[in-house]
């Protein structure tokens, strides 16, 4: 197994004939153990993103690429990593009244679309700063954007509402899938306080509900079974609650999946995309690629929390991960990242790699959101967005 050194990382970043990618496959288990039922994310009308392959194997998405990116990026708000990227924040309007009044503040690292998020376009001074950086990026120089929002280059970004329309692919791509799964249905029964009311009280409530055209169950004053999930009006025409005289499995309340195979997290660092990034000159280009690769390696090697949602809490059964260097030709070769390297060797490398760019960080780190600019953005006519290309 190849040992990771600073010289090796340098070569990954700068050698045009070097490997095309780094890949890590991570095995995950439910905290309940093998065969535990876990809950994938749900999507409108389709439920789980579950497919059956040609060989009969079923596979379901446990956490999408976009969701993984949004879980990984906030790492750079925490110590000791916050010193590696500018800590830019957006201040939203004051909320509350009198003594309860407070200002909402959100980090750029929390925004779903990063430096191309709608909130950024509605923050005039920050938008002006980033517009200049995107213009430079469009002309081939990524250094200005790396000085403001380097994670936009790590996790992908699309200046869809800006003047450049510039798109950048992800350098880090992560996804979690489960293989060979069986879907499980759920059912529930809500019992209200109506049984404690006398006939007169219940009649008054029913009268008011009828007048207001609402269901008492929606207000918590009548029992409500939960056996079928809600879908859009269009979908309900084709996915009825009963089919052939029996409950339609496609409309049952989703109760998770039982995983008979593996739960795997795949993380890929795209070295081809990394080496397509340039600075103002050859020296800055090499420095920029080392800096971005350092951030990518840290976030890819850091143990993120795998409590993904209610009913989906995963853990790592193995002490180390399996990393491979993917060459242009031939077989992948294993490479050894030591346990805790994100807080040791890789952090030290990144601290040195960030130094050429710190001088270019913005002096102002907090910017004010402008509702008037947001309203202009809402009113602006746009072309249909490509959901697969915006880096979310």
Question: What portion of the residues fall into strands of 2 or more residues?
Answer: 25-35%
Derived structural class: alpha+beta
Q: Helical content, roughly?
A: 25-40%
Total count of helical runs of at least 4 residues: 12
**Mean pLDDT metric:** 90
**Uncertain segments:** 386-392
Number of DSSP E strands = 24
Question: What can be said about the biggest beta sheet?
Answer: 10 strands, mixed
Sequence-ordered SSE layout with sheet pairings:
Blueprint: E1 2-3, H1 6-14, E2 21-30, E3 37-38, E4 42-43, E5 47-48, E6 50-52, E7 58-63, H2 65-72, E8 89-95, E9 102-107, H3 118-121, H4 124-138, H5 143-148, H6 150-155, E10 157-158, E11 167-168, E12 172-179, E13 181-186, E14 188-190, H7 199-212, E15 224-226, H8 233-238, E16 242-243, E17 246-247, E18 253-259, E19 263-270, H9 271-274, H10 282-301, E20 307-309, E21 312-315, E22 322-326, E23 333-336, H11 345-358, E24 366-368, H12 371-379
Helix pairs in contact: 1-10, 10-11
Textual characterization of the structure:
- The chain is of the alpha+beta class and 392 residues long.
- The chain folds into two domains: 2-180 and 259-379, no CATH class; 183-258, no CATH class.
- The chain contains twelve helices and 24 strands.
- The chain has helices at 6-14, 65-72, 118-121, 124-138, 143-148, 150-155, 199-212, 233-238, 271-274, 282-301, 345-358, 371-379, and strands at residues 2-3, 21-30, 37-38, 42-43, 47-48, 50-52, 58-63, 89-95, 102-107, 157-158, 167-168, 172-179, 181-186, 188-190, 224-226, 242-243, 246-247, 253-259, 263-270, 307-309, 312-315, 322-326, 333-336, 366-368.
- The strands form seven sheets. Strands 1, 2, 6, 7, 12, 19, 20, 21, 22 and 23 form a ten-stranded mixed sheet that branches. A three-stranded antiparallel sheet has the order 3-18-13, with no helix packed on it. Strands 9-8-24 form a three-stranded mixed sheet.
- A hairpin with a 2-residue loop joins strand 20 and strand 21.
- The longest helix is centred in the last third of the chain and has 20 residues, at 282-301.
- Residues 386-392 have low confidence and may be disordered.
């Amino acid at each position: 197994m190849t040992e990771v050194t600073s010289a090796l990382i340098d070569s990954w970043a700068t050698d045009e004939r070097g490997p095309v990618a780094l890949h890590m496959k991570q095995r995950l288990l439910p905290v309940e153990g093998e065969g535990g039922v876990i809950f994938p994310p749900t999507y409108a009308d389709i439920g789980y993103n579950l497919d059956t392959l040609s060989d009969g194997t079923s596979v379901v998405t446990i956490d999408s690429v976009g969701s993984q990116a949004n879980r990984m990026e906030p790492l750079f708000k925490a110590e000791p990593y916050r010193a590696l990227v500018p800590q830019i924040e957006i201040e939203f309007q004051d909320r509350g009244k009198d003594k309860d009044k407070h200002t909402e503040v959100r980090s750029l690292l929390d925004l779903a679309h990063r430096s191309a998020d709608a909130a950024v376009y509605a923050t005039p001074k920050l938008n002006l700063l980033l517009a200049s950086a995107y213009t430079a990026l469009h002309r081939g120089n990524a250094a200005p954007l790396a000085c403001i929002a380097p994670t936009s280059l790590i996790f992908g970004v699309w200046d869809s509402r800006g003047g450049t329309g510039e798109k950048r692919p992800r350098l880090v791509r992560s996804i979690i899938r489960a293989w060979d799964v069986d879907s499980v249905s759920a059912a529930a029964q809500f019992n209200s306080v109506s049984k404690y009311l006398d006939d007169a009280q219940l009649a008054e409530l029913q009268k008011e509900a009828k007048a207001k055209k609402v269901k008492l169950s929606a207000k918590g004053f009548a029992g409500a079974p939960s056996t079928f999930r809600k879908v859009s009006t269009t979908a309900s025409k084709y996915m009825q609650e009963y089919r052939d005289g029996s409950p339609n499995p496609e409309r049952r309340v989703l109760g998770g999946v039982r995983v008979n195979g593996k739960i795997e997290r795949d993380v890929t660092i795209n070295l081809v995309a990394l080496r397509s990034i340039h600075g103002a000159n050859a020296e800055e280009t090499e420095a920029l690629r080392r800096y971005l690769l350092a951030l990518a390696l840290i976030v890819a090697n850091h143990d993120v929390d795998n409590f993904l949602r209610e009913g989906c809490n995963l853990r790592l059964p193995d002490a180390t991960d399996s990393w491979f260097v993917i060459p242009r030709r031939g077989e992948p070769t294993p490479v050894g990242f030591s346990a805790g390297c994100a807080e040791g060797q890789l952090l030290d490398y990144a601290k040195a790699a960030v130094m050429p760019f710190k001088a270019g960080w913005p002096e102002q780190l907090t910017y004010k959101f402008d509702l008037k600019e947001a309203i202009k953005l809402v009113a602006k006519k746009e072309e249909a967005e490509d959901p697969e290309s915006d880096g979310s």
